[in-house]
Design brief:
The chain has a domain at 236-455: Alpha-Beta Complex (Spore Coat Polysaccharide Biosynthesis Protein SpsA, Chain A), CATH 3.90.550. The chain is 56% helix and 9% strand. It has helices spanning 50-96, 100-104, 112-141, 151-155, 160-211, 218-224, 252-260, 280-295, 311-320, 344-348, 374-397, 412-417, 428-438, 459-486, 491-526, 534-549, 559-581, 599-610, 623-631, 647-665, 669-686; strands at 24-29, 32-37, 239-245, 269-275, 300-304, 330-333, 339-340, 358-367, 408-411, 442-453. Helix 5 (160-211) packs across helix 11 and helix 20 packs antiparallel against helix 21. The longest helix has 52 residues, at 160-211.
């Protein structure tokens, strides 16, 4: 018999040997284990006697506690390693000294003058907050933090500091607190209005799910019961597919391959690859890819513009001026990183049949790299809500939403009736959608038709994308406000377009997010006479975050980072909104969102495994060669990517942490925790630790 851990001999259940004690079974089931206590021995038995039994039972519990301590130590070690890695990355950022100001010289995303002024204002607030914190700490040490201490009582105290602090209290009470409280109340009202709008959208989405509301093609509604029924009866309209791209070397192959494999008669669709690349090597590679598909029998054309007038809008406008476009009824747009399924056209084009007033059918985006890092996970939460809730509700109830710029099918007649593509803003997709809506065209959104694409993996790319997405709508609002008023659409549609679509969701949202949580909240810590209720700081934002994350339930563990990151991004969005509204700086600057091309390897291997030749004989490329080519990294002549320090975010982090320290003097618990975590969030983003990490 093997020796026992607890007695001289062991067998069977631990602790049930010659010794006594309470028998315990320890189940070691990796990675979890459990402990269960068995019934003690009956009184009078040898096993129940004396101190020896209690001692052995104590050793059993000690062993179990040691196992638990070992597991806890392992977790602490992992957390310590992660903390050291983050600290090391932060040290490298500071040592390198690369900032967003350096990046602006090569790829400007916003005006240098405006960026400098905005950053200067934040630094002034930071210096003032540090001075006020020093004053408040000195007053706290004097015992002047008590509620019964007033400016009048301090006048009886001798000393220059007491007189100065009494004067500061009078200034706060008489001059600073009233306007600050008014601004606070105004922002709270805007916050509540926007929260109600968000709640109504969620209720509309629940109603759609409950009733099973979704667009159905007339042919399928007539009894065939198949969403592709409208394209199965031999009626295949002429479709033009446009693929605008610019220096997107990482993703062009898989996107062109996916579009060329669309399940549609070859004679009834033509592909235009609209290359605006200014890099000769990239242009040559794209042209070679097009020629390869031409040899496979696909009707595909390569077009290259030397001068990028109008950016994407100019590219699309130039392509629509081709003489052969008049032979086509519909046009489909796919950006360079979009990879539609083979049945995309069969699931979208039938929705136009018998509906002459439908101008646009928009599909949903899905993301191949949503789990790549924390930044892509948080983007996925935002975009899932946008498509699942905003687009679906607006499409179902008012037949209008903002065109997403890609993965959509337009009726060419609707484009021409609306004036075609215009280069007047950086959101040409929203521009054409608004003008088509004013002409009376209806939009359909298909939540069950997905098109794969790629999310920006670096904070630099995401920041530039968000700047363009939030400055463009304000440019458009200034340009089309009079047209909305003069249009012949109904009064309520005008109200929806002006107050909900533009003002509430494009202007008020970034305004109050930045002003309320990044300006007013820290100021109320130094001017305590103006109050910001705890339910505004904690409960309403938490509720809105829960609603936002419902369309992506797997992202619930990231609900706190999501709330903090949204407030952090409010700086970029507010800056972009002001830039677009007042035409400042880079309001008209277009910066192409950088792609990593991570989706290419998995998709190409998947296509190889599925033997895509079954889809269309002779139409598939040599996918084995493509897979091999993708596995070998290409030499790129461009400059290497770097992580950078973002000065505005870093300065705001110190400002919020200073305000958090001030809140401790007033014992404001919720305000302290919110300011502290929000300051840490700004610090992480300011040191570029949230997205892709470049070694």
């Amino acid at each position: 018999m093997a020796p026992s851990w607890w007695g001289r001999s062991g067998g069977g259940v631990v602790g049930n040997g010659s010794g006594g004690g309470t028998p315990v079974v320890v189940k070691m089931e990796n990675p979890n284990w459990s402990i269960s206590e068995m019934e003690p021995a009956p009184p009078g038995s040898p096993a129940a006697a004396g101190k020896d039994a209690r001692g052995k039972n104590a050793r059993q519990i000690t062993w179990v506690l040691l196992l638990k301590a070992h597991r806890a130590a392992g977790r602490l070690t992992g957390a310590a390693s992660a903390a050291l890695a983050v600290a090391s990355a932060a040290r490298r950022r500071v040592a390198a000294g690369r900032t967003d100001a350096d990046a602006a010289a090569t790829a400007p995303g916003e005006s240098t003058a405006m960026r400098t002024r905005f950053y200067g204002c934040i630094r002034v607030f930071l210096v003032l907050s540090l001075l006020l914190l020093a004053v408040e700490v000195a007053a706290y040490l004097q015992g002047w933090h008590l509620e019964d201490v007033t400016a009048s009582s301090l006048l009886a105290v001798d000393g220059l500091f007491a007189a100065g602090y009494a004067g500061w209290m009078r200034v706060r009470l008489d001059y600073l607190a009233p306007p600050l409280q008014f601004l606070t109340n105004a922002c709270v009202v805007l916050f509540l209005v926007q929260s109600i709008d968000r709640l109504v959208l969620c209720l509309g989405c629940f109603w759609i799910k409950f009733k099973g509301i979704k667009p159905v093609p007339l042919a399928a509604a007539g009894g065939k019961g198949d969403v592709e029924a409208g394209a199965d009866d031999g009626d295949f309209p002429m479709v033009l597919v446009q693929m605008p791209m610019c220096n997107e070397r990482e993703v062009y192959q898989q996107s062109i391959g996916a579009v060329c494999n669309l399940d549609w008669p070859r004679s009834n669709f033509l592909i235009q690859v609209l290359d605006d690349s200014d890099d000769a090597t990239t242009s040559a590679l794209i042209k070679e890819e097009v020629e390869k598909w031409q040899r496979e029998g696909v009707r595909i054309i390569y077009r290259h513009r030397v001068i990028r007038d109008g950016y994407k809008a100019g590219n699309l406008k130039s392509a629509m001026n081709c003489s052969y476009v008049k032979d086509y009824e519909f046009v489909v747009i796919f950006d360079a990183d979009f990879q539609p399924q083979a049945d995309f056209l069969k699931r979208t084009v039938p929705h136009f049949k018998g509906k002459d007033d439908v101008g646009l059918v928009q599909a949903r985006w899905s993301f191949v790299n949503k789990d790549e890092n924390l930044l892509t996970r948080l983007q996925n939460v935002n975009l899932c809500f946008h498509f699942e809730v905003e687009q679906q509700v607006n499409g179902a109830f008012i037949n209008f939403f903002g065109f997403n710029g890609t993965a959509g099918v337009w009726r060419i007649k609707a484009l021409e009736d609306s004036g075609g593509w215009m280069e007047r803003t950086t959101v040409e997709d929203m521009d054409i959608a608004v003008r088509a809506h004013l002409k009376g065209w209806k939009f359909l959104y298909l939540n069950d038709v997905e098109c794969q694409c790629e999310l920006p993996e670096s904070y630099e790319a995401y920041r530039k994308q968000q700047h363009r997405w939030h400055s463009g709508p304000m440019q458009l609002f200034r340009l089309c406000f009079v047209d909305i008023i003069k249009s012949k659409i109904g009064f309520w549609k005008k109200c929806n377009l002006i107050f909900l679509f533009f003002l509430l969701r494009k202007l008020i949202l970034p305004f109050y997010s930045f002003t309320l949580f990044c300006v007013i909240l820290p100021m109320t810590m130094f001017v305590p006479e103006a109050e910001l209720p705890a339910w505004v700081v904690c409960y309403i934002p938490a509720t809105m975050s829960i609603l936002n994350i419902l369309p992506a339930p797997k992202s619930f563990p990231f609900i706190v980072p999501y709330l903090l990151f949204e407030n952090t991004m409010s700086v970029t969005k507010f800056n972009a909104m002001i830039s677009g509204l007042f035409q400042l700086g880079s309001a008209y600057e277009w910066v192409v969102t950088k792609k990593s091309g991570r989706s290419s390897e998995g998709d190409l291997v998947g296509l190889v495994e599925k033997h895509s030749k079954q889809q269309r004989v002779g139409s598939a490329p040599n996918l084995d060669a493509l897979t091999k080519e993708e596995s070998n990294p290409k030499k790129d002549s461009k400059k290497k990517k770097h992580n950078r320090i973002y000065r505005k975010e870093l300065a705001l982090s110190f400002l919020l942490l200073t305000a958090a320290a001030r809140s401790l003097l007033s014992a404001q618990g919720i305000h302290f925790y919110f300011l502290m975590f929000q300051g840490v969030s700004f610090l992480v983003v300011g040191l570029d630790l949230i997205g892709e990490q470049v070694e």
